[in-house]
Amino acid sequence: MHDPTESVRREMTAEINSVEGSREHLEGKHGEVWDTSELQEQYEVLAFMAPFTIVRRRSDGVRGSVMFQANPRFYFRFQPE
After folding, report:
1. Which helix (H) or strand (E) holds 41?
2. Which residues contact residue 56 at a Cβ distance below 8 angstroms, ignoring those fewer than 6 apart?
3. CA dihedral 65, 47, 15, 28 (to 10 degrees)
């Protein structure tokens, strides 16, 4: 199965994971940041397509996406659909 977004997503993933990724750094750049436990409390995870995760916000059912970095694993930049 051909994924036309794969090469772009691979580049984005490499870029995200190539810079210092402390929670403080990500909060300064993107606002709210979640670790895995925090994400699972606030969102239902529906799918992964690095560097994106498709989620549904538990408080109101809004679907959207968040981005994530690999190490340490943090999620950020919620974008509603």
Report:
1. helix 36-42
2. 43, 44, 46, 62, 63, 64
3. 40
Tokens 């996406």 correspond to 65
C-alpha dist (Å) from residue 74 to 19, 34, 77: 13, 6, 10
* Rounded CA separation 16/10 (Å): 10
Give the pLDDT confidence of 2-59 residue by residue, as tens digits: 888 888 888 878 777 767 678 998 999 899 999 999 999 999 999 999 999 999 999 9
Check residue 74 and give its pLDDT.
95
Which of 74, 70, 77 shows the shortest CA–CA distance to 38? 74
pTM, full prediction: 0.85
Predicted local distance difference test score (pLDDT) of residue 14: 75
Instruction: State the Cα–Cα distance between residues 54 and 45, nearest whole angstrom.
Output: 6
